[in-house]
Structure formats: structure tokens, C-alpha cells
Amino acid sequence: MNIDMYSASIPVFDRFLANLSGLLDKAEAHAESQDMADTKYVVSRLYADMAPLSSNVQFACDTARRCAARLAGEDPGSEADDEATLDELRARIRRTRDYLAGVDADRIRGTEDKTVLLETPMVTMEFTGHDYLLNFALPNFFFHVSISHGILRQQGVPIGKMDFMGAA
């Protein structure tokens, strides 16, 4: 099955990063209505051994940026992972969305069979572009966006499924 690798990646990442930013907007409004600091959300976790909201937003952004870069044959660069407020997390999302907007669609299209190496300190994984996008990058991205939604919901932010999904 052939898919348009660009259409299956960049617009999807962009839409859900916009939705994630909207979740952070709602969290900020909720914090203000409760007269509390929004940093409470930034450090919140679903469970003690899970990453906090800040890390989940960072991971979602990194996954989108690195996927686009790997498929396009570019250096994804890196970020400092030092965001401590909702506004700083939204700024990271904006930078990621700006990066994605600058990716040339023709550099992504036709990468279904491209070899993508994912190197970590513990293991090197080899994928085709198709398998990397559909079986690694997108599931990883959606995991972190979903966990971010769950953390905020658990903390009492009035959000639901349509806040996660966003407008079509």
C-alpha cells in the first residue's frame, strides 16, 4: 500500500501539536481560575514512575521534529529540555510547528523505502521510512500527547476527548 508520507506525517504532527497547545491554554485558564501557579501542571505525573507533563510535551515535540528530519535527510537539532512553565512549553510547541512548516514536502514524499536508523545508547534500530513513521514515530508521538491530556485531566483541567482531537 502506497501512502503519501508527507500527508501522513507533517500535517498530522502539526494538527495534534496545535491541539496540545490548546490543552495547555485550557490548563493555564484553569490554574488562573483556581488562583494557583501553572507550574503545578508542568511537574504533574499520571503515576510516580512516569514522566511529568513537561517531559511528555518535550517528547511529543522531539518525536515530530526528529521524524520529519530523519525522513527529509536533515539534522533534527536538539532542544535544552528546560521548560518550567506552560508558556515555555507552548513556545517549544511553536518552535516545533515552525520547523515542520519549513520542511519541504518533496523531501518527505517518496521516503517509504528509505532506510531510517534510530540510534540510542542501548540499541540501533533500522526501519523503512514507512515502518518508522507508522509503527514507531506516530505511535510514540500520540502516546506522549495522550499522556499529556491524561495528566491535565487528572489534575482537574476541564478537557475532554474533543480537546484532544481538535477541530477537523
Explain the layout of strands and helices.
Layout: H1 10-33, H2 39-42, H3 53-72, H4 86-101, H5 105-108, E1 115-119, E2 124-128, H6 129-154, H7 161-165
Antiparallel strand pairs: 1-2
Write up this protein.
The protein is mainly alpha-helical. The protein is built from seven helices and two strands; from the N terminus they run H-H-H-H-H-E-E-H-H. The protein has helices at about 10-35, 40, 55-70, 85-100, 105-110, 130-155, 160-165; strands at about 115-120, 125-130. A two-stranded antiparallel ribbon has the order 1-2. Helix 1 (about 10-35) runs parallel beside helix 6, helix 3 runs parallel beside helix 4 (about 85-100) and helix 3 (about 55-70) packs antiparallel against helix 6 (about 130-155). It is elongated, with a radius of gyration of 16 Å. About 35% of the residues are buried. This is DUF1993 domain-containing protein.
Please sum up the structure shown.
It is built from 7 helices and 2 strands, in the order H-H-H-H-H-E-E-H-H. It has 168 residues and is mainly alpha-helical. A two-stranded antiparallel ribbon has the order 1-2.
Residues in β-strands, percent: 5-15%
Low-confidence stretches: none
Note the gap between the termini.
25 Å
Give the mean pLDDT.
Answer: 95
Rg calc: 16 Å
DSSP summary, beta strand count: 2
What is the string of SSEs from the N terminus onward? HHHHHEEHH
Number of helices: 7
Question: Helical amount among residues, as a percent range?
Answer: 55-70%
Indicate the overall shape. Answer: elongated
Give the biggest beta sheet: 2 strands, antiparallel
Structural class: mainly alpha
Order of strands side by side in the largest beta sheet?
A: 1-2
Organism: Spectribacter acetivorans
Protein name: DUF1993 domain-containing protein
InterPro entries: DinB/YfiT-like, DUF1993
